[in-house]
Amino acid sequence: MKPALTLYLAAPRGFCAGVDRAVKIVEMSLEKWGAPVYVRHEIVHNKFVVDTLAAKGAVFVEELDECPVDRPVIFSAHGVPKTVPAEAERRNMIYVDATCPLVSKVHLEAERHAEEGLQIIMIGHRGHPEVIGTMGQLPEGEVLLIETAADVATLEVRDPDKLAWITQTTLSVDDTAEVVAALQARFPSLVGPGKDDICYATTNRQAAVKILAEKIEALLVIGAPNSSNSKRLVEVGRNAGCAVSHLVERASEIKWDALEGITRVGLTAGASAPEVLVDEVIEAFRDRYDLTVELVETAKERIEFKTPRIFRHDT
Ligand code: SF4
């Protein structure tokens, strides 16, 4: 007899509108120009998605100079510094920008602040491609990066009365609120977005995990180790009291020993993890347990982003 277990399935979970659009852009590029098409950086941070597109003829590289000039190149959903499209243009390459519109919105915000003579403080994770892309919208030194509330005290600014703040879109909502409070305490005239720049998908998935945490003894988040929003979901689970919160890329990574004696498990997926991986995990549970699946829906998402014009004019 299999032991009984209830799997509480978070909704919303998995693919967001920005990821969906970026994946479609690669697929449509392959249709339009044939293989190979080049993609600068993983189109979204998910190995399964990248491998699937690679099997169809997408070639993933880290830098533009790894792409031949006579093949199209796509920029990933995370966004790129301004120098990247400028270089593609200089080399006369066809390029398609798959930057999520919500990341582009932050780019525009940064530019607008800079035009108003404000120096920008970005809250984000050093080295993340989105942060590199956003900081690269302006000349070096115009955007200062901080990661935690503790960084605020040591921040050296040009003029404390001429500052604005922006954020990475995939941060922890709660941690970011702390950093913003520390910034506002030190720089009272600081200008910023209403609340933060964290996107709807990140916000909704974190809120769903908080509700889920009230019901469960363990949480599994399907996502890649380099996926910022997926890692934040694990932290949100732990902070909400779910000590056994694990990130797994595939069902094969589940640590079944850690679930010994547990009967209520929560399951969610980061914004770059496709639903097929959720199904795979559910099936792995079904193999081992007398399984009940319960949906915990905390919001409905209806957001969709249009693909670039270059594909819409094709018909
Ligand atoms: S997680 Fe948010 S910012 Fe990132 S691609 Fe999805 S919608 Fe866009």
UniProtKB/TrEMBL annotation:
Obligatory cofactor(s): [4Fe-4S] cluster
Binding site for isopentenyl diphosphate: H45, H78, H128, S227, S228, N229, S272
E.C. code: 1.17.7.4
Secretion signal, residue range per the UniProt entry: none
GO MF, one example: metal ion binding
Pfam families for the chain: LYTB
Record keywords, A-Z: 4Fe-4S, Iron, Iron-sulfur, Isoprene biosynthesis, Metal-binding, Oxidoreductase
Cofactor annotation comment: Binds 1 [4Fe-4S] cluster per subunit.
UniProt record, GO biological process: dimethylallyl diphosphate biosynthetic process; isopentenyl diphosphate biosynthetic process, methylerythritol 4-phosphate pathway; terpenoid biosynthetic process
TM region(s), chain numbering: none
Residues reported in the UniProt entry to bind dimethylallyl diphosphate: H45, H78, H128, S227, S228, N229, S272
Binding site for [4Fe-4S] cluster: C16, C100, C199
Top EC class, one word: oxidoreductase
Pathway: Isoprenoid biosynthesis; dimethylallyl diphosphate biosynthesis; dimethylallyl diphosphate from (2E)-4-hydroxy-3-methylbutenyl diphosphate: step 1/1; Isoprenoid biosynthesis; isopentenyl diphosphate biosynthesis via DXP pathway; isopentenyl diphosphate from 1-deoxy-D-xylulose 5-phosphate: step 6/6
Catalytic activity: dimethylallyl diphosphate + 2 oxidized [2Fe-2S]-[ferredoxin] + H2O = (2E)-4-hydroxy-3-methylbut-2-enyl diphosphate + 2 reduced [2Fe-2S]-[ferredoxin] + 2 H(+); isopentenyl diphosphate + 2 oxidized [2Fe-2S]-[ferredoxin] + H2O = (2E)-4-hydroxy-3-methylbut-2-enyl diphosphate + 2 reduced [2Fe-2S]-[ferredoxin] + 2 H(+)
Binding site for (2E)-4-hydroxy-3-methylbut-2-enyl diphosphate: H45, H78, H128, T169, S227, S228, N229, S272
Mitochondrion is among the record's keywords: no
Keyword Metal-binding: yes
PANTHER family noted in UniProt: 4-HYDROXY-3-METHYLBUT-2-ENYL DIPHOSPHATE REDUCTASE (PTHR30426)
Family: Belongs to the IspH family.
Protein name: 4-hydroxy-3-methylbut-2-enyl diphosphate reductase
